[in-house]
């Protein structure tokens, strides 16, 4: 893989990730200001390391292996662009409710518009697409599947936590969330 391609892949992966991190942090502050509760048991700390680490491992493997064919590089790029579009559709639909953390605000309604009208977890579908796309773009036949499977396990746990937190908040709308959700 020519030297400029791994740099370009790193840029298209990590620059948007920085923008997303800034937006998530601002939204987390807004959620907490509204009385948002973060339930205990989240895998966020592991996700913080695994998500960028998986991409770094794929890029490194791509450099060592010499990269994929031009066709796989282009398919990966197209998939990455589609995944980012889906992710940003979810981000823009959720507005200030989109965060990296699970934070439930008392009295807030579930969003059922945008991609949420079609998919229960469009952000996670997009993340899976990003991981597959970068594996294709880099030719990471080892780090790609390992990173994707590892992150899929974390997403599975996260989805369960989100579902329990949202269900508890909806089943007990009159109770303070702190009484029904153990805090971190």
Task: Describe the model.
This protein is mainly α and 184 residues long. It has helices spanning 4-33, 44-65, 70-94, 122-138, 143-171, 177-180. Residues 176-184 have low confidence and may be disordered.
Secondary structure layout:
Elements: H1 4-33, H2 44-65, H3 70-94, H4 122-138, H5 143-171, H6 177-180
Helix pairs in contact: 1-2, 2-4, 2-5, 3-4, 4-5
Could you give a quick summary of the protein structure above?
By secondary structure, this protein is mainly alpha-helical. It has helices at 4-33, 44-65, 70-94, 122-138, 143-171, 177-180. Residues 176-184 have low confidence and may be disordered.
Structural features:
single chain, 184 residues, 6 helices, elongated
Helicity range: 55-70%
Total number of strands: 0
Uncertain runs are 176-184
Number of helices: 6
Distance between the termini: 44 Å
Major β-sheet, in short?
none
Residues in β-strands, percent: under 5%
- Write down the Rg: 18 Å
Shape, please? elongated
Q: What is the N-to-C succession of helices and strands?
A: HHHHHH
What is the SS-derived class? mainly alpha
On the 0 to 100 scale, the average pLDDT is 91
């Amino acid at each position: 893989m020519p030297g400029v391609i791994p740099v370009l892949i790193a840029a298209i992966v990590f620059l948007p990730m920085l923008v997303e991190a800034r937006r998530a942090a601002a939204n987390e502050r807004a959620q907490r200001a509204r009385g948002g509760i973060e339930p205990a048991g989240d895998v966020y700390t592991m996700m913080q390391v695994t998500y960028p680490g998986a991409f770094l491992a794929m890029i490194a493997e791509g450099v060592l292996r010499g990269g994929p064919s031009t066709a796989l590089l282009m398919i990966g790029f197209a998939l990455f662009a589609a995944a980012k579009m889906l992710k940003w559709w979810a981000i823009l639909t959720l507005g200030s409710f989109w965060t990296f953390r699970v934070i439930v605000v008392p009295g807030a309604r579930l969003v059922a518009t945008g991609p949420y009208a079609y998919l229960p977890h469009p952000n996670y579908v997009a993340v899976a697409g990003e991981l597959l796309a970068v594996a294709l773009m880099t030719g990471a036949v080892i780090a790609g599947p390992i990173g994707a499977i590892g992150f899929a396990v974390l997403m599975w746990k996260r989805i369960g936590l989100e579902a329990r937190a949202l269900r508890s908040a909806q089943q007990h709308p009159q109770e303070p969330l702190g009484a029904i959700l153990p805090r971190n």
